[in-house]
């Protein structure tokens, strides 16, 4: 008797098994993508199967010794989460952070800066403890942004590029000193202002503990006014104290400490703000008696210099800029002093070297992080004479190469030049500075221009560009005693040491932090 054939059922069974395995593979791949790559929590539409039970509660420890149960808000409870995220929502760190932010937001509600119907945004919040706290106290329409989303509380977005339309939110919060960690603080602040509704409130937690950093922070928010500032205890040992700043957006209000142009540059008339002038009073005293050996005095005096970043936090600046006017070689001051000794607070500076002497230009071609301006800093744009004096009184980097001085072309007919003479291009340094930096940048300048400082400094005041400079290291050239020839003064310069002191004193009297350089 022949056995019945079973080929057809086996074929169908194989097809069904393969379809089932393929479906399982799709589900696994989708789950892995959503959870590990996209960084998002899942819902049923994402083929995820780890749902948070409806009766799941978060237990938060109150201010006292007891405990109170707070039911997880709908945003978390209704979503499916992975076991690791479920553990995060019940961790002590999460509960502590939620309690901290809840207390902060309840105070803001009682003071009228936040309401339960406010559309709210928390910026650069990685896991959304502040968003969760807002929802817990009844501010349901709240969302957070971070570069990697953590749904349902946090979606993808960054502080310098907030993914919402303008005038969207009634309340914007930035906690954890996140603004001062931003690589683009001005863009960060501008985005907060853009997305905040007129009459809306922005609350920012910062470490700002001195007047310089506090006012630098306020300068970032041009169209907001300061409503309140207070010091509060921080969330943990990593942030033990916080300055809470409350700002209100006012549509037509342009605030600032100086008279500003539309593009953010300083207008011709300016005055150094009081908070900067306070650091002038803390600066090292001038050397009032003319030094017999200035090259030795320089080495001693540099140890006494009180640098601005050693007295203040410079975090809230848009850019950090160093301008070396009369830079000579890279090792003359940029490499030997600024790179090694100036306290930069881990900030990256844009470095400009202004040097008219073509002898040094080739060296800067390999210095990729230095922008060379191969011209002479001057009071206007014009052709100049560049004179090389073989001055035996001063050490030079290039053997046999003297120090360069500039003069207008008509000076050639006056005679008296002793050395090489080249024609070079001079440029209006004050005008260049106003077009290169703004009052929201941190600007350090070293000036060693062989006597031209008596032309350039008045021009900086005349144009208002002086207010753009935070700190100046100025070498003032005078008829000093010559190293080579005892009891003889250099005939190279007409100014006296007393006139140099007058220049330094006038700068400090006008609120400019200037240091003597040799």
Question: How do you describe this structure in short?
Answer:
This protein is an alpha/beta fold and 518 residues long. Helices cover 29% and strands 23% of the residues.
Features:
Rossmann fold, alpha/beta, 3 domains, 518 residues, 14 helices, 6-stranded parallel sheet, 7-stranded mixed sheet
Write the layout of secondary structure elements.
Blueprint: H1 7-37, E1 57-61, E2 67-71, H2 74-77, H3 83-89, H4 92-110, E3 120-123, H5 129-136, E4 142-146, E5 154-156, E6 169-174, H6 185-195, E7 196-206, H7 211-220, E8 224-236, E9 239-249, H8 274-280, H9 294-301, E10 320-325, H10 334-341, E11 350-354, H11 361-364, E12 370-373, E13 376-378, E14 382-389, E15 403-408, E16 420-428, H12 429-436, E17 442-447, H13 453-463, E18 471-475, H14 497-509, E19 514-517
Parallel strand pairs: 3-4, 3-6, 4-5, 6-7, 10-11, 10-17, 11-12, 13-16, 17-18, 18-19
Antiparallel strand pairs: 1-2, 7-9, 8-9, 14-15, 14-16
Helix pairs in contact: 4-5
Describe the fold and architecture.
It is elongated, with a radius of gyration of 32 Å. Helices cover 29% and strands 23% of the residues. It has a seven-stranded mixed beta sheet with strand order 5-4-3-6-7-9-8. Strands 12-11-10-17-18-19 form a six-stranded parallel beta sheet, with helices on one face. Helix 4 packs across helix 5. It is of the alpha/beta class and 518 residues long. The chain has three domains: 63 residues, no CATH class; 144 residues, Vaccinia Virus protein VP39 (Rossmann fold, 3-Layer(aba) Sandwich); 244 residues, Rossmann fold. It has 14 helices and 19 strands. Strand 8 and strand 9 form a beta hairpin. 34% of the residues are buried. GO terms for molecular function: S-adenosylmethionine-dependent methyltransferase activity. This is Methyltransferase FkbM domain-containing protein. Pfam families: DUF7870, Methyltransf_11.
